Amino acid sequence: MNALRAACRLTRRAQAGFTLLELLVVLAILAIATASVTLAMRDPDRQALQRDAERLAAYLESGRAWSRSSGQPLRWVAQDGGYQFLGRQPAQLPERWLNEEVSVEWPASPGPKELVLGPEPILAAQALTLRLREQRLRLASDGLQPFAVRQP
Question: Cα dist. 129→17, 57, 96, 104 in Å?
């Protein structure tokens, strides 16, 4: 009888706390849950700017391909509330940002504030920065590669 009581006391003591493995599993689950919530809560300004930047990169590459195939020069310039492709009929490409508050910041170089898209197959390196409130994204090409969205 005493042996049975002693065995019951040992069993209760062993079940009184958590093992290190159980604690590590719980911490891992909490870390994964925290990371997924953090990634799900993206900044809406960042998303809007990313959409505009990717859209502009696609239009710039489309304009670049058109300029090369047609042999006609094409330039892109920023305007208040939008942009314009010079050298192509205006109705063929959009001229407005998806978010009206997007603005363009040019590098501090003393050149013209425009992007030259062709018709030459190899162009000079070009870059600009898109801004929406406190968010910034850089759109750049080395002249050979397509325009890509990068962090400033």
Answer: 57, 12, 16, 6
Q: For residues 96 and 80, is the Cβ–Cβ distance under 8 A?
A: no
pLDDT in tens, 18-42: 888 998 999 999 999 988 887 777 6
Considering the four listed CATH numbers 3.90.245.10, 3.40.50.970, 3.90.226.10, 3.55.40.10, the one that applies to the domain covering 44-150 is 3.55.40.10
Rounded Cα–Cα distance for residues 68 and 73 (Å):
8
User: What is the reported pLDDT for 137?
Assistant: 95
pTM, entire model: 0.70
Residue type, 8: C
Give SS3 for 80. coil
Q: Count the Cβ atoms, other than its own, within 10 Å of residue 19.
A: 9
Distance CA 68, CA 74 (A): 9
The full set of domain ranges for the chain reads 2-40, 44-150
Which parts of the chain sit beneath pLDDT 50?
A: none
